[in-house]
C-alpha cells in the first residue's frame, strides 16, 4: 500500500544470529542482596564514592548529614527516655500527691494513675462503670473478630454497624424503665418498636420474595437489619429491666459521661453514620434527577463550607435563645449530630472520588446483564469504589476521631477536655504535670489513629484483586 | 468456502423475527450519528457488521439493549418494544447477552461469581442451580478450572471467554458482540473466535461488530457495511467480499484486506 519507494541504508556488518544454548539464570550480585546489600543501598551508596574530587566532596557532605541525623535521633530518643523513665516519678506514697513529684524533673506518673478513671470515664458513677466496660469489651471483641475472625465476618460487621449502637446506648445511658417499678412504662416502651419491627419484617418478606421490585430486592438485607435493630430495641427494655432488678442500674445522664468514653461515643457514631450517609450523598450528587442532585450538592457544599467548631458553638450558645425556656435538647446529642453531618459531607466527596474512578464498562457490564440501578450500585459499583478509596475513607475517620476534641468548646469533657479539667487540680500542680498529661493523651490518640491506619492497610491488602 | 457444505444442521434460520429495527435515528446533541436504520434479524441469523471507525456500528448494536438511547423510530426485540419504560428495558437486557471489547468483567468477583451474579439477582435462580449452570458454560468455553480465580489472574482471551460464558448463563436469545477481539493479542484471538463459532453452530442468533473478515466469511450468513451512520450495503458474505457494489464498500475492503 506504500506508494513511494523507500531506500534503506545498507548494513555492512553481520546481522544473522542464532542462539544455540540456553543462557543460565544467575544470582544477583552481592551488593543487591542480604545485609551487605541493604547497608550498601541504604547507608553507603551516597557516601562511598571517592573516585573524583567533586564526588569525594559530595560523599563527605553526605557522611556529615548521616552523622548529624544519627545524633539528632539519639538525642531526641534520650531526652524522651529521660523524661518518661530516668527522671520520672513512678509511685507516690498515700496522700503525698504533688509532693512526691516535685523533687524529680521528669514525668509525674502518679498523676496519671490518680486521674486514670476520669480519663477513661469522666464523671460516670463508679458503681455503674461496668456498663461502660462491657461496651468497650464488646467493641474490642467485635473489631478483633472483624480482623482475625475465622468466619461469619459479614454477620459480625452487620451487628457492629446496626446492633452495637443500640446495645451501647442502652448500656451507657440506661433505659428509663425503673420508674417507681411501674411495669406499664416498660410495656409501653415495647409495643411501638415491636410493631415497627413487624412492619419491617413484612417488608423484608415481600422484598425477599421479589414483590417490591428491584429496589426492594436490592435492599432486602437492609430491611432485615432494620428488623433486627428494632427488635433489639423492643426486647432491650425487658433485658435492662432484668439487669435493673438484679443489679439496680440507673439512668446515667450524658453530662456525667466523659473522657475516652465520650471521645469514642462521638467518633463511632460519626463513623457509623457517615459511611452510609456518604454513600447516599455521593450517589445523589451523581444522580441525573435534578432535585436529588441539587439537594445533595447543597448539603455537601454548605456543611463543608462551615467550620465544625462554629456549628458546635452555635448549638451550645445560641440554640437556647431560639428554644422555649425549659426545653432542653441533650448537649451531647447535639454535638453528635453536628459531627455526623460533617463527617457525612466529607465522606460523600471521598466516595464520589471512588465512583469517578470506576470505568464506564463496569456500569455497562451490569446493565447488559439486566441488573437494576440499585443492584448495580450494591453489587458492582460500591464494593469496588469503596475499596479504591479506603485510604481516603480512613483518612476521614482519623480526622473525625481527632476533631471530636472540638466538643470541649461546648463544655463536654472528652479525653482532652477532661485532661484540661484535671490539670486545674491544685493538689497535683507540678511543673511537669501538664507535659505528662498531654504526652499520655497524645499516646492514647495515637494508638487509636495508628490502629485505624493499620486496619486500612490490612483491608487494602485483603481486598486487592489486581494480583500483579 | 461454500456455505451449503459447511453449514451444521443447527444453523438454520427461521421466519421468526428476533430483532426488528425500523426507521431508527439517533443524535448526540446536534450530531446525527445513526440515520434511517432499518434492520430485521431473524432467529438463527449470524450477522457481521463492519465499517470504518466512527461509522456508528457499535452505537447501533448498543441501541438494541438500550445502552444507548435512540430518539426516533422503533426497536422491537423478541416481541418487546423498546420504550423508556424501565421494565421493558430490564426485560430486554436480560434476554440479550452482550460481550464488550474490554470484557467488562467484575474484577472484585471470582469467575464463578461473575457468572452467577445476574442469574441469582435478576432471574432469582437458587444459588446451587446458578453455580451448576455457570460451571456448565465455563466448561463449554473450556475454562472450568479457573472458576475460583479473579479476572485479573486470567489472560485476555480467557477473560473474553468468561464474558461470553457470563452472558450465556442468562440463557439469552440473542448475543451482541462489540469488537470482542479488538483488545486481544494475536495469539488469543483464535480461542475467542472458536468459542463464537461453536456458539453459532448451536443456532444462537448473533450480531457481531468485528474486523475479523475470516470469521465473517466462515460464520456469517449476512454482512452489513456501515458508513457515516447509515447502512450502506448488506449481502451474503461471498457476494459481499467478492463483488462489493458501492464505492465506499470497495474502498473499505481494499483498506482492510490489502496488505
Overview of this structure, please?
Chain A: It is found in: Cell inner membrane; Cell membrane. Chain A: Pfam families: BPD_transp_1. Chain A: Belongs to the binding-protein-dependent transport system permease family. HisMQ subfamily. Chain A: Keywords: Cell membrane, Membrane, Transmembrane, Transmembrane helix, Transport. Chain A: One of its GO terms (cellular component) is ATP-binding cassette (ABC) transporter complex. The complex is a heterodimer of chains A (468) and B (259). Chain A is mainly α and 468 residues long. In chain A, 70% of the residues lie in helices and 0% in strands. In chain A, helix 8 packs across helix 14 (373-388) and helix 12 (331-356) crosses helix 14. The longest helix of chain A has 35 residues, at 213-247. The mean pLDDT of chain A is 83. Residues 1-5 of chain B have low confidence and may be disordered. Chain B contains ten helices and ten strands. Chain B has helices at 3-6, 57-64, 86-95, 111-121, 127-140, 156-168, 186-201, 213-219, 237-242, 247-257; strands at residues 17-28, 31-42, 46-50, 72-77, 80-81, 96-99, 174-178, 205-209, 222-227, 230-235. Chain B has 259 residues and is of the alpha/beta class. Chain B is globular and about 55 Å long. In chain B, strand 7, helix 7 and strand 8 form a beta-alpha-beta unit.
Amino acid at each position: 500500500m506504500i506508494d513511494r519507494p523507500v531506500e534503506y541504508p545498507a548494513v555492512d556488518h553481520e546481522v544473522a544470529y542464532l542462539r544455540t544454548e540456553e543462557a543460565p539464570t544467575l544470582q544477583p550480585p552481592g551488593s543487591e542482596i542480604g545485609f551487605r546489600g541493604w547497608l550498601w543501598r541504604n547507608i553507603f551508596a551516597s557516601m562511598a564514592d571517592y573516585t573524583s574530587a567533586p564526588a569525594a566532596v559530595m560523599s563527605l557532605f553526605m557522611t556529615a548529614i548521616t552523622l548529624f541525623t544519627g545524633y539528632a535521633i539519639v538525642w531526641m530518643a534520650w531526652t524522651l527516655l529521660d523524661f518518661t523513665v530516668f527522671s520520672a516519678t513512678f509511685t507516690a506514697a498515700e496522700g503525698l500527691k504533688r509532693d512526691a513529684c516535685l523533687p524529680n524533673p521528669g514525668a509525674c506518673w502518679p498523676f496519671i494513675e490518680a486521674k486514670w478513671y476520669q480519663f477513661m470515664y469522666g464523671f460516670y458513677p463508679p458503681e455503674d462503670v461496668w456498663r461502660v466496660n462491657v461496651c468497650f469489651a464488646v467493641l474490642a471483641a467485635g473489631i478483633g473478630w472483624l480482623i482475625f475472625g475465622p468466619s461469619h465476618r459479614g454477620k459480625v460487621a452487620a451487628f457492629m454497624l446496626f446492633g452495637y449502637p443500640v446495645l451501647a446506648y442502652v448500656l451507657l445511658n440506661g433505659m428509663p424503665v425503673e420508674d417507681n417499678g411501674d411495669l406499664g412504662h416498660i410495656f409501653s416502651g415495647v409495643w411501638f418498636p415491636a410493631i415497627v419491627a413487624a412492619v419491617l419484617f413484612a417488608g423484608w418478606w415481600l422484598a425477599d420474595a421479589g414483590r417490591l421490585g428491584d429496589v426492594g430486592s436490592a435492599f432486602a438485607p437492609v430491611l432485615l437489619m432494620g428488623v433486627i435493630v428494632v427488635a433489639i430495641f423492643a426486647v432491650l427494655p425487658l433485658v435492662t429491666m432484668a439487669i435493673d432488678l438484679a443489679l439496680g442500674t440507673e439512668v446515667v445522664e450524658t453530662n456525667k459521661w466523659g473522657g475516652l468514653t465520650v471521645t469514642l461515643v462521638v467518633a463511632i457514631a460519626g463513623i457509623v453514620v457517615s459511611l452510609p450517609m456518604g454513600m447516599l450523598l455521593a450517589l445523589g450528587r451523581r444522580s441525573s434527577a435534578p432535585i436529588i442532585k441539587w439537594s445533595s450538592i447543597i448539603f455537601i457544599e454548605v456543611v463543608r463550607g462551615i467550620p465544625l467548631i462554629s456549628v458546635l458553638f452555635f448549638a451550645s450558645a445560641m440554640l437556647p435563645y431560639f428554644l422555649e425556656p425549659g426545653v432542653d435538647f441533650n448537649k451531647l446529642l447535639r454535638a453528635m449530630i453536628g459531627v455526623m453531618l460533617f463527617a457525612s459531607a466529607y465522606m460523600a466527596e471521598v466516595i464520589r472520588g471512588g465512583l469517578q474512578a470506576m470505568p464506564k464498562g463496569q456500569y455497562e457490564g451490569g446493565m447488559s446483564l439486566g441488573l437494576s440501578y440499585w443492584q448495580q450500585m450494591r453489587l458492582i459499583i460500591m464494593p469496588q469504589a469503596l475499596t479504591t478509596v479506603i485510604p481516603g475513607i480512613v483518612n476521614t475517620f482519623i480526622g473525625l476521631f481527632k476533631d471530636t476534641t472540638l466538643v470541649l468548646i461546648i463544655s463536654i469533657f472528652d479525653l482532652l477536655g477532661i485532661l484540661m479539667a484535671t490539670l486545674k487540680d491544685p493538689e497535683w500542680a507540678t511543673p511537669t504535670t501538664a507535659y505528662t498529661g498531654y504526652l499520655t493523651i497524645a499516646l492514647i490518640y495515637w494508638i487509636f489513629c495508628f490502629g485505624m491506619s493499620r486496619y486500612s492497610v490490612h483491608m487494602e491488602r485483603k481486598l486487592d484483586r489486581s494480583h500483579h | 468456502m461454500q456455505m451449503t457444505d459447511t453449514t451444521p444442521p443447527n444453523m438454520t434460520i427461521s421466519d421468526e423475527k428476533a430483532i426488528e429495527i425500523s426507521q431508527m435515528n439517533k443524535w448526540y446533541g446536534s450530531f446525527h450519528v445513526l440515520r434511517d436504520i432499518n434492520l430485521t434479524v431473524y432467529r438463527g441469523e449470524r450477522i457481521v457488521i463492519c465499517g470504518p471507525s466512527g461509522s456508528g456500528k457499535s452505537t447501533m448494536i448498543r441501541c438494541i439493549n438500550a445502552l444507548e438511547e435512540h430518539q426516533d423510530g422503533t426497536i422491537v426485540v423478541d416481541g418487546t418494544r423498546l420504550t423508556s419504560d424501565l421494565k421493558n428495558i430490564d426485560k430486554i437486557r436480560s434476554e440479550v447477552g452482550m460481550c464488550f471489547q474490554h470484557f467488562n468483567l467484575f474484577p472484585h468477583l471470582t469467575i464463578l461469581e461473575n457468572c452467577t451474579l445476574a442469574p441469582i439477582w435478576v432471574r432469582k435462580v437458587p444459588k446451587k442451580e446458578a453455580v451448576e449452570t455457570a460451571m456448565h458454560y465455563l466448561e463449554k468455553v473450556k475454562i472450568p478450572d479457573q472458576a475460583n480465580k479473579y479476572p485479573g489472574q486470567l489472560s485476555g482471551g480467557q477473560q473474553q471467554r468468561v464474558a461470553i460464558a457470563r452472558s450465556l448463563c442468562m440463557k439469552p436469545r440473542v448475543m451482541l458482540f462489540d469488537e470482542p477481539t479488538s483488545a486481544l493479542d494475536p495469539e488469543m484471538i483464535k480461542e475467542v473466535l472458536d468459542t463464537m463459532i461453536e456458539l453459532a453452530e448451536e443456532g444462537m442468533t448473533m450480531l457481531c461488530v468485528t474486523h475479523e473478515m475470516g470469521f465473517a466469511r466462515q460464520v456469517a450468513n449476512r454482512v452489513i457495511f456501515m458508513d457515516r451512520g447509515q447502512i450502506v450495503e448488506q449481502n451474503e458474505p461471498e457476494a459481499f467480499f467478492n463483488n462489493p457494489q458501492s464505492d465506499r464498500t470497495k474502498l473499505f475492503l481494499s483498506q482492510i484486506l490489502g496488505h
